[in-house]
Amino acid sequence: MGNIRSKRQISLSSEFHILARSIDGMRIMTEKWRDNHFSHEELPRLADALHSTLILVRERLSLLDCVVRDTLDAKYAYHKENQAFAEEPGDDGDVVLRSWSARKAAEKLRGEAERAAHHAQVVEERRKRRQQDGG
Question: Does the pTM of the predicted model rise above 0.85?
Fold first, then answer.
């Protein structure tokens, strides 16, 4: 079991709570904006802060989507605030996303290399056809 703890594990529930708190903060700021609790000078900064937070939340959701679909290693979405401590997934109903093993990471990289080689081959064949066709 020591090996499990050394791997980075994400609590999907913790991640969702972090995102929900970010959205709550934006909601509070927009309510204060609506109620004119900000000075005229603060409004551009407030708009920038809201816009930036929305971008960060959107990008975080995209990152998590890739981890859930297993196209990105969970270690890239890990941070101490979303760390999972469950020994076994489902202990408390949470979904635990684990970082890839070295073997899985190597398999994913081999697959990417094969796709890149195939793409390069297709591009080269198209280039040769164009040259043969006089274009």
Answer: no
